[in-house]
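User: Could you check the structure of this?
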Amino acid sequence: MRIRSPRLTAAIGWSAAVVFRQLARTLHYELLMDEPGLDPSGDVAEPFIYALWHDQILPPLARHTLTQPPVAALVSRHQDGSYLVEFMKYSGIRAVRGSSARGGDQALRELLDVPPEYRIFITPDGPRGPHHQLKAGPTYLASRSGRRIVPVVTAVPGCWYKSGSWTGLQIPKPFSTVYFRLGKPLAVPPDLGRDELAQYTQRLQSQLEALEADLAEKLGGDAVIAPLPAINTKASRRAA
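Assistant: Sure, the predicted structure tokens are below.
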């Protein structure tokens, strides 16, 4: 059953934000960065775009609720995105609505107008997947805005993992340790064509995969990285 009431949607978002903030205060955070000045919840060297997988979005948001620097994030226009928008509003995050399926062009134009003091969060595989397969949104935005992209992966050993049709959600347990691996910023030349943009998208894909493998190795194996969720066959047929 989908909830259409704006008041109820707002109440759900507010309640989730209150609970999530309490959870965030119990967590321990460990950052491994290739260079200083990349921490999205601290003092950054420049207004970066942060590219992180959709199922790993909660750990960075948890840190954000404690420090609340200026952040804008791309959120789906699906009803689930409406809950997330309300959650973000109470967590101090500017939500921009859009996805590759609905409103993507308008959302990218709005992100281009985000003030320079804001850092931008994008989940380039999106809620509809494919799981951990990069779309061109971050590299297109970087090419048009001049912002560099910081690839980010997270791991939470022993976390809850909620599987979905295409991707899932990594949910930290109270008092657990959250590990962040941030790679070197990727600069994308201005106004690239489709073919040239695809090369940088593949480069960013490779960076994210390498960071995930590196973090898994440092923490003792692939088991700390959430597994690929099973594909929903009905959803697959609809997408085809």
